[in-house]
Every structure is written in structure tokens, then in C-alpha cells.
Amino acid sequence: MDAQTVDRLKQMYGDRAATDLFERGFYERDLAPVPNFLVKPIADTLPDIVIRPKSTEEVAAIVKTAAVQKIPVTTRAGGSTVYFNTVCTRKGIVVDMNGMDGLLAIDKENNMVRVEAGLTWWKLERALNRVGLATCSYPSSAQAATVGGWLVMMGYGLGSLKYGSVLEQINSAQVVLPDGSVRELNATSEPPISWFAASEGTLGIVTEVGLKVRPQPEHEWHGLAEFENAEQMQCFIESAVTLGNKPFNLHFSDPGCNLLRHRLGMASPQAAAAYTVAFDADGTEAETIAACQDYERCLQKADGGDLGEEAGHEWQHRFFSLVLKREGPSLLGAEIWLPIYNLADYLSDVADFETQKSLGLKSYGHVVTQKHAMVMTMFNADERDTIGYLQGLALVKKLHDIGARHGGIPYGIGLWNTPYLKRCQSPEELAELKKRKKMLDPHNIMNPGKRYEPPLLLKPALFGLGMDLLAATTLVYKGKEGRK
Asked: Does the model's pTM come out above 0.90?
């Protein structure tokens, strides 16, 4: 990107355009603390300029400038993933959407709202609650994740079991396409809004969203079930997902996760030794009473126990899963989209892997459809330990391999999961995605280097060989010391 263009953009957007090296440096990372020696051979992550627009018109002007000069554009808001979805790989412009966080309109009669894409789910939920409404679902990272960001990640989270993915709750979206034109998209437009779900910012920039909401629930009810083994836990979950009045949320944890939560003062000694499932329901008083009865029946069928008052405490901590990082310095892990009927077998293989490697593995997840759960399996890591961190990344690959054996795929692609593309989509599906990219973005300026093709060092054959060799070596890394 030439200096003249940088200067012109700086003049246009004033103090909302950052060219200072120190400030731009904050945009070189997301939640993944990957050392530079691993990043720099693959990606040029320092943007030439960061711009914080305040309107769709400003976003469109930025993209038009980029389109004319074929400058890469990367969109960023909460940056709450670990895949470098929102980190540039070829310099260029980073468009920071956090300034576009308005609640534009509320249609209470039809349970609809119009919001700017940079609005976080937590701020939206609080604003809706003040007028007697609520979101249908939201991510566990609701305090940082934005409406637009969750759409382009095809968000599933709390509430998804009952109300579906975020795409099922959106009836329209305003999008700036890669040529700088502004389009209002819906389910039947050309292109349809469904193209942008899971596109990870590679097809355009979502600036506004029309979203379905619901009346604020009158009552809540929370249960926390405990089980001796994963088979009982799976039985409980399989019963719960078939209920006519589905729970708002089903969240499960294995003993490794619960033991750490106990050490952090977030779980009882009884929970620390168990597999647990949080069963959260809301609605009318009659619906929550019925949910309590459903819970008891599912619990009896699975031969589980009830942890009583601890359920409310678990619900209050629903946004703090990453507090597990406190044992530090950091975490590595695999987030996997997994069939529910394979959950117990997956956790059994994870337990066998733990026996071999002694990593202090811990798993938790959300049931997000009647057939699938999102499972996160993690272990402590330390990015300051160069050799050890490499070994840790190799072990993440082994966790993905365990998931694949049980029908699981990575949730999210970005940069770091591109080696697993063939697991995530069939050749026909990937060809269709590439066709859409070429049609809308022929010059590949929107978030290039992600989603569709791995870079050389992440090609499956080379990546797989290197990671498997590292995983077979004797562990020397210091990350696991944090659990002692």
C-alpha cells in the first residue's frame, strides 16, 4: 500500500485512522497467542492502516478505494476467535467495526430489531431487556462478540438448541460488497444472505442486520446434573434434545474441566469428580415448571444425580469459560463440531490420550442442535516456551484427529484450521464456496489468505507430517506445569 494512499485515508478519517506502529500492532493478534516465529513465515499481519468507520457510507468509501487499487481489506470487531479470522495476512486496511454499535430500530409488535453490525450481543441483550424483549440466542463470548461477527462465523451458542443458528434469526442484512457497492440482502436476494454466514469476512462487510427477537421470558429455571461417566451424560443429553419444550441451553463439562473450576472456586468438590450438564430453561411459569419435570425424567433415565443450588451459580458464570486460563499462562485446544451420539466415545479417546501424554486435558461444550454439540478440549500452554509450544500445536492436531474419528470437524476455519479444509467440506462444497468468492471478489481483496486454501506451510501433507513427528517426541514443554 503506497504512502500517498495511506496519507489520503488518514486525512479523510482523522483520528479514526491509525498509522502509528504501536497502535497497529494490537491488530496483529486475536485470542491466539501464537509466537511470531510461527506467524511471520505464513502471514504479514501488520496492517498499513486501521480505520474505524462510523457509517455504512464510510465503509463503502473505504472498500471502493481498496477495490480500485486492489488493497487487501480485513474486517475486525470483537476479535474473539483463535483462528486469525480477523487478522490480516497481506497487510492492507483493517476496518475496525467497533464504532458502529448502534441499536437502530425496535419493532416490538413484530419482535424485530435493526442493529449495526458492531453491536455486541451483551449490549443488545441488555438494551432489549429494558423494553421487555430478549435475543433468541447469543454466543458464550457475548460480552465481546458482535452481531455481524457472529453472522459471518455462522454462530451457534446459548439458545441455538431451541431457536437455531444466528442465520435462522436474521431476515435481512446490509452488506458492502468487494466493489464498494451497498446491498440489502435477505433469504431470496442475489446473492442471498446465507452466502455470508460462515464466510468469515471473505465476501464483504456486514454493516447492519435485521434480527428476530422474542418477548423477555417471565421465568427461568436451572438444573445441574451430575454423572459418574460420559455414557450416562450422553444418555441425559440425548433425552433432553428430544423434548418438545427444548431447554434454552445445555452445557456439559468433564471431570478435568470441573476439577479446575473447583480449584478456581467455581464448583463444589462433588462436581469436581463428575461429568455435569447444566439444563437451563426459560419461558412462562408453566413452561419452567414443565422443564423442571422434564429434567427430572431425563435425570432418572440416565441414572444421574442433581447438584441443586449449584445450577444457578453455573448459569451466572456462563460467559466465563475462559477463566480456566487463570492457571495459565495460556491455553491450547481444539473446538470441534461433534455428533452428540459420539460424544461419550470422543471423551473416552480424549481420556486415553490424557493417559498417554498427561496434559491436564479438560473438555466442555454446548449442545447447539438436536444432533450436534460444540466441544472444546484444552490444555495449558506457554507461548514463551518455543519448542514446547510447537509440541503443543502438534497435540492440538492430535485432538482434531480424535474428533475426526468420531465424525467431528473444526468449528471455524480462518488461517490456522485451513489444513483441515477437506474434513470440513466435500470437494463439491469447497468448489462452490470458491466459485462464490471469485464471483463477488475477483481480485481477492476481502480478507485474503483465509478460508479457501491453506498456505504452503499449512498444506495438509506437510502440516500433517510435521505435526505427527512433533507429537511423537518426548514432551518438554512447560505449559502443563500450570495445572500443578
From this structure: yes
